[in-house]
């Protein structure tokens, strides 16, 4: 059946920076300094940001906002943005909200991520924001919550995370 459909070939090319640069620099800066440096282009963005065409919109202590404009390359087989894109956006925003509160020399990793997808995203949706906000910042564990909304505030997903905090060597 696919041979009966006129298929247009699509190509996407992108590049990313050496990821070891950010890891080394990040270990010497507070989370806020590092995230602000990434947002300004001073430090390389994670390769996954280039893969998804995702950017940091804003950073403040305890709150980070990422954005994506849904594209065909985000789609699952039924013509909507794949749930993994939602999860990646939310994991990034929530974990970075936690990262924004950490002093130099401390890192984190996601222990748990709970995501609720409320409605589909498509190329017709337009730009969406993943907004992550810290809930609790402890010495060894931190939690955050967040949501994906469009530019009018319409909810597409919401999530919570738990991250482990530890000394980071870079």
Automatic annotation (TrEMBL):
Q: Where are the transmembrane segments?
A: none
Family matches, as Gene3D superfamilies: Hotdog Thioesterase (3.10.129.10)
Q: Where is the signal peptide?
A: none
Q: Does the keyword Chloroplast apply?
A: no
Keywords noted in UniProt: Hydrolase
GO molecular function terms listed in the Swiss-Prot or TrEMBL record: 1,4-dihydroxy-2-naphthoyl-CoA thioesterase activity
Q: Which residues form the Thioesterase domain?
A: 79-155
Question: InterPro entries per the record?
Answer: HotDog_dom_sf, PAAI_dom, Thioestr_dom
Keyword Transmembrane: yes or no?
A: no
Any single GO CC term annotated in Swiss-Prot or TrEMBL for this entry: cytosol
Query: What Pfam families does the record point to?
Result: 4HBT (PF03061)
This chain's protein is named Uncharacterized domain 1-containing protein
- Give the species this sequence originates from: Spirosoma endophyticum
Q: What is the lineage of its organism?
A: Bacteria, Pseudomonadati, Bacteroidota, Cytophagia, Cytophagales
